[in-house]
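ok so i was messing around last nite and threw this chain in just to see what happens. nothing serious, just curious
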Amino acid sequence: MKRFFFIILSITLVAGTGCIKDVAPSDAITTGNLTDNPDGIVNAVNGAYSLFKDNVEFNGVEDLNLMYLRQFYHLSDFASDDIVCGQVTTDPLWLSFTGDHSPTQTNTRYFWYITYKIINNANTVIEAAGKVANPDAATQQLIGECYFLRAFCHFNLVRLFAKPYTHDPASPGIILRTSVADPAQKARATVAEVYQSIIADAEKGAELMTASRGVQYASREAAWALLSRAYLYMDSYDKTIEYSDKVINSPRFTLTNATTFQTLFANAMGGSETIFCVAHTQVDDKGKFGSIASMIYSDGNSGWGEEFASKALRDSMSDHPEDVRWKYIVKLDNGSGGVALKNGIETYYISKFSFQGGSPTLSSPIMFRLSEMYLNKAEAEAKKNLNNNALDDVDMIRKNRGLDGSLYNRVLPAGRSALDVVLKERRIELAFEGHRMYDVYRNKRNLNRTYWGYHLRGLKETDINLAVQPAGYNNLITNWNSNRIIYYIPVDEVQSNPLCEQNN
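result:
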């Protein structure tokens, strides 16, 4: 596979560990003084959460399009077959669609930087609070939250910048940062070592977190949910089922039904199945510039609306127009009852990140929710050949999405395996939430984007016979073992840290 490198004339090197976010401009927090202020630990932990949604200066520039969550969804979902690129753009999100990755692309460089900044904040709190004698439950909760944040951040990094565990656990992972004293120059841990660290941190977090502060903060159940997901990615079936059941059996959450699901994402903090979300308020509404929704939704006055729900995803849902999950796929009417076309592409906007407080560009993105636990469990059961159990868990989702008359009732459709059924249900239920690309590749399946869109770099719609991949063109179908499925380690890290091996 040909990879593309770009020459950069100058670059400000970014250290592997950043400074903790200031609570006040004149009061930098360190492990030495964090516990001097009664509110110091709380403010520091809350500051770490804010980094998921803040526009943080990068290389001396504050770019409103650079924000952890915006990059997270673009790097994940825009590289999948659920979202189609509607036009050429200068935003580096374009590189997720085309697969023409570069170690100098701004979105991966920022994501790497801001993620390690959150990790460093968590490390600072863990080490400072660890000096507190006989910490009370509230303090232990905060420390546990930081273990969770560190695990969650390492997990997202290893998914984007390293091969899936199921491909090769001994392959290079990412740089583990588990102490503020870590040297800036450090080699990448193996994928297996990264997962071991994630598991250990999530387990420690679950042990410490007994005083939940609400779904906008980590909790014991959020740590269990992360363990369920991480073990699923490791093909550790019994552990996946164990931790999924821990969350499912918790009295804190219930599945939304066909009615309440339709307002879940606009009311994430009050949603019955939200386990952990990144809380946004009206002050955090970034509008047309920098919001997650800005590229995938437009009401004509706000948002660019340049990326749409793909034909492939809509085809997978086409047999059931009564499915309430269609609520989040919004057809742009052409004025005659049909669907409007933009550059020959049917315009179906995505509204999972819209309408909190009525704003088309505001939401509190959900990182973990109860439906995923049923689907994690179902996938593990399918792989253990517990087909009836897997279909029962899938049916739990379907009967709460308006599909009471279309349940599997322990009968597999002709020609499909239980895993096929589960992965299709995951695709529809978790669409646009940052799962699809990983679900395909970790299961060693190819990603088929055989539909018109601007992921077909350099071609026109009229050039393509979608039944036949053009000679020499490899972006319609991405093989599971292609180097395109992960991103380059950002140039900042590689140039400043000679111990860090670059991806091929």
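not much to say yet. The mean pLDDT is 90.
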